[in-house]
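1st attempt posting a full record on here, be nice pls
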Amino acid sequence: MSRFYKQGSCIILGLLLVSVINSNAQSKINPELFKQNWPAWWIAAPNGSPDGFGVYHFRRDFNISKVPLSFIVHISADNRYKLYVNGKFISDGPAKGDLPHWRFETIDLAPYLKTGHNVVAAVVWNEGKYRAAALQSYRTAFILQSNDSTTSFIDTNNKWKVLSDKAYQPAPISRKEAGNYYFAIGPGLKINGADYPWHWNEPGYSDSGWTNAKQIRHGVPRAGNTYDIYAGWQLVPRAIPSMVHRKEKFKKVVRSSNNSLDANRFIDGKEITIPAGSHVKLLLDQGYETTAFPVLDISEGKGSRIKVVYAEALVDSAGKKGNRNVIRGKHIRGYHDLFMPSGGSHETYESLWWRTYRYVQLDITTASQPLVINNYYGLFTAYPFKENASFASNNQSLKNIWTTGWRTVRLCSHETYMDCPYYEQMQYDGDTRIEGLVTSYVSGDPGLLRKAITLFNDSRLADGLVQSRYPAHDEQIIPPFAFFWVAMVHDYWMYTGDSTFVRQKLTPIRGVLEWFERHIDKEGLLGYMPRWNFVDWSFKNGGVPAGGRQGNSSILTLQYVYALQLAADMNDQLGRHETAIFYRNLAEKLGKAVEKLCWDPDRKLFADTPKMNEFSQHANVMAILDGLVTGKKARDLMERTMNDTSLIQTTYYYRFYLFQALKKTGLEDAFFKELKPWYHMLDLGLTTFAEQPEPTRSDCHGWSSSPLYEYLTMVAGINPAEPGFNRVNIAPHPGMLTDIEASMPSPKGKIELTWKKSGNRWIGQATLPSNVSGIFAWHGKTIELHPGSQRLEISD
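the predicted structure (as C-alpha cells):
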C-alpha cells in the first residue's frame, strides 16, 4: 500500500524507467561479487515466523552530501519484495526461479536520491502455506548488496530497521469461490487500515518504534568460489526485464444497488460518497480481461468494509458463464480482497500481487461515517512484449482473432509464461512451447522463451526427466510434456540461431529421451509410464488417451518419435552425428511399430492403440508430422482426419499440431475452416481465448493463441530456412483471401510481405534484412530473394 494519491504519476513514470535502468545497471555488475560470499546479510524480523504468512517493512536512513553518478545495488527477497527510495516505487521481484537459482535484481538508485536525508525501504512478504504453487521458499528474508565499497553502508545488516505489519491477514480462496476448480495462485488479502503504518517508506516517517533486523546469513552467489551447504538461496542475476506497469481505467459501472449514486464518477477520478449505515454493491466491467494491480483511493469511511471480488466472467444460477458480455440474471463468483479503512484522507489500498479480472465487484458496508471513493483504476502488468509483427487482409474478422490472441498470450506472460493468469499462474512445458513461438514471432523477443527453457532444465529429476510445470514448490510430472520441452529448444534454435545455448541443452535432452527409451515395451511401443500422461482435454480420462496409462498408446509413441526427430536435427547440425543417427534409427523403429500395430487398413486411419477400438485426430496428426505417411497418402490421411467427425477431436491446445499437419500435407488453405472454434469464442463475448470448449474453466489460456503463429508462418508463409533466419523461405497460402500484408521481426531484422490478387496474377513485394536471402515459393514456382525489397509477380 503506497501513497499513490501523492505519487501516482511518479510511480507510473518510475516503473517505465525501471527496465531501462535495470538493463544499464546489469552491465555494470561488479564481477568480484561472484567470487565470494556477499558482505550483505539476508535479514529478517527478529520475532517473525520464518515460514508463515507475514508482511514486513524494512528501512535504512542515510545522508549524502552529493548525489553520485551511479548507486548500483542488487536486491532479492524470499518470497517477494517491493523496493522504494524516498517514497517512490523503484523495483519489485525477485523474478521467479528456484532455490538453487534464486534471482536478484540490479538497480541504479542514483536517479531517486537527493542531497541530504534519504531512505531506502522495502516491503517483503511471504504467504507461507497459502503461497502460490509457482513460488518456492526457503524462509522469509531480504537482502540488498551494494555494487562496490563506496556504497557499502547500504548493505543489509542489523542496522536496518524492520516492522512486522499486522494490518495484513490472508483471505484464503474457498473451493466454492474457485468454481470447484483447481486454484493455485495464493490467497486474497485482508488489510486493516487502522493497523497500517502509513507513510512508512517516506523520509519524514519515524521508525523509532521499529526493531533492528536479525542477520540470517551472507548472500551466496551460485557462481562463487565458496560453497555454503546451508546457503538456502544460491543467487543468480535476473535475466529478463522488469514487468511493464501501465495505468488503465475501468470501462464502466454496469450494475449498482444504489441508483442514486452516479457510480461512474470515481472511474474518472471524481469522488462519490457512500452514505453512512448503508450497504452498496457496485459491479464494474473492465471491458476486457486484464492482469493488473487494482488501486483504490478512499477517504473517511472508518468502520467500513470493502470486499473486492475479481472474476473473468459472471455466472448464472447454474454456474454457467454463457455470453461474457451479458450480465442480466448473472452474479459474480471469484476470489476477493477485503479492505477496512481507518477513516483517513486519501488512503490507497491495493493487493501485494496483481489480480486477473474482467469484472470486479465492490461490496461496501459503511458504519457511522460515510465513505468517499476518490478513484479506482488498475496498473496493468505483464512481460514487456511489444507487438512488432502485423497481419492484415481483406477479411477483417481475422484481425479480431489476432487482437484477442495477442491479449491472451500477453496476460499469460509475466516473469514466466503461465497456463492461465486467473487459476494457476503456472508454467507448463506443453503450454509454453506454443506461447514461446507466438511471442517470439510477434515480438521478436525470445528472452522469456530462453528463461523458460532454462527453468525446465533446472527442474530435471535424477532419472533425467524434466518436470511438467516449473518453478513450483510441489513436484508434478506429465511425461509427454517433456517431448515439448525438446521441441521448445528446437524452436528457440530455429528462431535465434543461438547454437551455444542450444548445445548446452543437448545432454539434458539426451537424459529426457533415454527416460522414454527405458519405457519401450516388447511390442516396440511406449509401454507403461507412471504419472499423468496428459495429451488433450478431449480425452475423457483426465486428458489421457487410450493406452496412456497401461501402455501401447500410439499417440505417446508418436510424440516420442516427434521429439527424437527434432533432437536428431539439432545434434546433426551441431556436430553430434552419431547421436543424431541413433535418434533417427530409434524414431524409425518406433514408427514402424506404430504402423504395424495401429494402422487400420479398413478405415485407413491410425488407431490410438493396437486394440483398434479408439481413433483420434491426435494419432493421425502425429503420424503425418512424423512422416509415417508422405505425399498423396499423407494428404488423403489428413483429409480423412479433418472430415471424420467420429474421431476424437483436437481441442484448442492440440489444434496447434493439427495446423502443423496441414502445412506438412499442403492443405494450408483448410486453416481458415479450422478457425471456427475461435470465431465461436468471439461470438460468446470472450476477450481472450479459453482453455477448452464450453464449459471451460479458464477464459484465458496461452495455448489458445496459436493462430497468430499460423498467420505469419502459414498464411504469410514466412519461415526460417536456417537457424537464426540466415536464410528465409516465404511461401504464402492466402486461401480465399485476395490481399495480405504481413511483417514480422527476426533476429536479423524485419521481414515484410505484401501479396495481392490482380486479375489472373498475384503481385506483391518482399523485403528482407540487409544480410538475409531466401526463396519465395508459389504454386510450384520459385523466385530467389535477395536482401532488401523486391517486386513479386506470378501468374496464377
